[in-house]
Amino acid sequence: MKKLTLTLTAAVLASTLFTGCAPLLIGGAMVGGVAVATDRRTSGTQIEDETIEVKAAARIREQLGDRVHINVNSYNRVALITGEARNEADQAAVERIVGGVENVSKVLNEVAVTMHSSLSTRSNDVVIKSKVKAQLIDARDLHSNAFYVVVERGEVFLMGRVTEREAARATEIARQVGGVKKVVRAFEIISEEELAQTLPKK
């Protein structure tokens, strides 16, 4: 568990270096200070999502070990699982494990039944993710913090509470990034009226 915590902390630190956000430690979960204020989830939900990711990863490791290579990303209590399992039984087991984690409302199982991805593939995914996030930040007509980007084997998964207009625009941007093989929309679509209610009052 200690090793997992250190890994997650390092990942979050890398993310905050990229976005320029000062990290905030709440209840053991580190969250970007500026991102917390502009995220369309409540601060409580953000912490729940962090907890879901940590618990799910720990339980998968305990029950399946290195038989699988799995990444769990939670947004607004919807858990997206990506990675590789060597057979369908393990693929189903991963979904069952994640679905059993407290506060998970829905599981999106995008685990491929194949051999584990290589280190070079995973490194390339990190590069693609950085490029996609950079393009979203550069898009003046989007709030980049509304999007949660996951990349697995060149496939980009986009999550977030966004309008149909925002979803279409972000999908278009991601598809134009070099190295992207496929873009999968995993959004929670909200209306323009709902969006207006989430934005800070001027």
UniProtKB/TrEMBL annotation:
Family annotation (InterPro entries): BON_dom, Lipoprotein_DolP, Transpt-assoc_nodulatn_dom_bac
Keyword tags: Signal
Domain BON: 48-115, 124-191
Superkingdom classification of source: Bacteria
Residue spans crossing the bilayer: none
Pfam families assigned to the protein according to its UniProt record, in alphabetical order: BON
Classification via SMART domains: BON (SM00749)
PANTHER family assigned to the protein according to its UniProt record, in alphabetical order: BON DOMAIN-CONTAINING PROTEIN (PTHR34606), OUTER MEMBRANE LIPOPROTEIN DOLP (PTHR34606:SF4)
Name of the protein in its database record: Osmotically-inducible protein OsmY
